[in-house]
From TrEMBL:
Organism field: Maricaulis salignorans
Origin: domain of life: Bacteria
Domain named ABC transporter: residues: 2-251
Family that this chain belongs to: Belongs to the ABC transporter superfamily. Ycf16 family.
Protein name listed in UniProt: Fe-S cluster assembly ATP-binding protein
Length: 254
């Protein structure tokens, strides 16, 4: 479903210097599987998510990104989103003045139009929004507020998953979805993510810690260090990291 081959990516630092963050990543996530990316700060986890989804400022200098048999490396972010890629941000942004319900409706219809599908009517959208919001304990009053403005960390992360439930992407990239969540919010978010697991959908879960993977069970765990995948294995690899830390993998990648 998602196939990354020998991916190199650089960014421009604040001092104007160019810095390579990804140094030859190869990764394949088949449909129906959940893969986890774990690694220390600065290893390239978020950069990988930005490179795949086409964020400005992250220049792919070598390698390829293939999604459902189509090369997407030169596509704009909105084109990749219309193809079915979804990124849940580590730090969701606030959008003052834009009610959350309007934002969600416009996002859904923009993607439907891009795929040549009919827009969802206002009554049908409201029915959909109520149903999905209830799954995540999100009130309709919350959805009338501007996007993420005044939201707690847990509310922002639940809203990210609500977007995914409404948009129903083909592939989800969750960038540290557990960041800033207490245990109750973590369970709610994880339950929402687990409802999206399907034989025709893939997921890439990016996290520092094993605790998220207690609730979102991965098929494969990859360890990222210095912009490279240094080891892959089953779910037990996350428990090994929890017990032993990243030090030996940082040494291997150096």
């Amino acid at each position: 479903m998602l196939k990354i081959n020998n991916l190199h990516c650089k960014v421009e630092a604040q001092d104007g210097a160019e810095k390579f963050i990804l140094n030859g990543i190869s990764l394949e996530v088949p449909a129906g599987e959940v893969h986890a990316i774990m690694g220390p700060n600065g290893s390239g986890k978020s950069t990988l998510s930005y490179a795949v989804t086409g964020r400005d400022g992250y220049e792919v200098t070598e390698g390829s990104i293939n999604f459902n048999g189509e090369e997407i490396g030169d596509m704009a972010p909105e084109e990749r989103a219309a193809r079915g890629l979804y990124l849940s941000f580590q730090y969701p942004v606030e959008i003052p003045g834009v009610p959350t319900l309007i934002f969600l409706k416009e996002a859904l219809n923009a993607q439907r139009v891009a795929r040549g599908e009919a827009e969802v009517s206002a009554p049908d959208f409201m029915k959909l929004a109520r149903t999905k919001a209830k799954q995540l304990s999100i009130s309709m009053d919350m959805l009338k507020r501007p996007v993420n403005v005044g939201f707690s960390g847990g509310e922002k992360k639940r809203l990210e998953i609500l977007q995914a439930l409404i948009l129903e992407p083909k592939f989800l990239i969750l960038d540290e979805t557990d960041s800033g969540l207490d245990i109750d919010a973590l369970k709610v978010v994880a339950d929402g993510v687990n409802t999206l697991r399907a034989p025709d959908r893939g997921m890439l879960v990016i996290t520092h810690y094993q605790r998220l993977l207690d609730y979102i069970k991965p098929d494969v765990v990859h360890i990222l260090a210095a912009g490279r995948i240094v080891k892959s294995g089953g779910p037990e690899l996350a428990h090994e990291l929890e017990a032993e830390g990243y030090d030996k993998y940082i040494g291997e990648a150096a």
